Amino acid sequence: KIGEGSIVHHGVIINAGAEIGNNCIINSMSLIEHNTRIQDNCHISTSVTINGDAVIGGNSIIGSKAVIRNSINLKKNSFVKMGEIIKK
Predict the structure, then answer these.
(1) Where are the alpha helices (DSSP H) in the chain?
(2) Does the pLDDT at position 57 exceed 90?
(3) Which string of b and e fits 15-44 if b means at least 16 CB within 10 Å?
């Protein structure tokens, strides 16, 4: 499910059960795994990996090549630096 006004760029993979909110940018070569929920107004930068069952709170920015472990819940307005690995 991809919300209204959202953009999915080249080479992105969105797996089963994932939901992308409204007005999101999913940038090139990112991987959105199964059952992930990305809430409204998020920017997922290039080559980001968001593993299964994660939730990205609204208005968040995830920097290039960041990795989000499975089942992580990022709160609204989160900022993840480029290359950062979020484990807990």
Answers:
(1) none
(2) yes
(3) eeebebbebbbbbebbbbbebbbbbbbbbb
